[in-house]
Please model this.
Amino acid sequence: MAKPDISEVTKLTDDDIQNKINEIRKELFDLRFQRATRQLTKSHRFKEARIQLAQLLTVQSDRSRSSTSS
Model:
């Protein structure tokens, strides 16, 4: 999976963003578990997942900030 574009993330609904955040957090947990048990084969997924999580959290906080200020 290539690095996701922020424009794709902004098109998602609030519920979709929350679901994606939960999925990525679970994936990061699983990756850490695999690394600890030495079963990890795709170590590059750490960076990709962290970048995608940061983008989702940024869009989510921007939306919540704009809705409270309006």
In short: The first helix runs from residue 6 to 10.
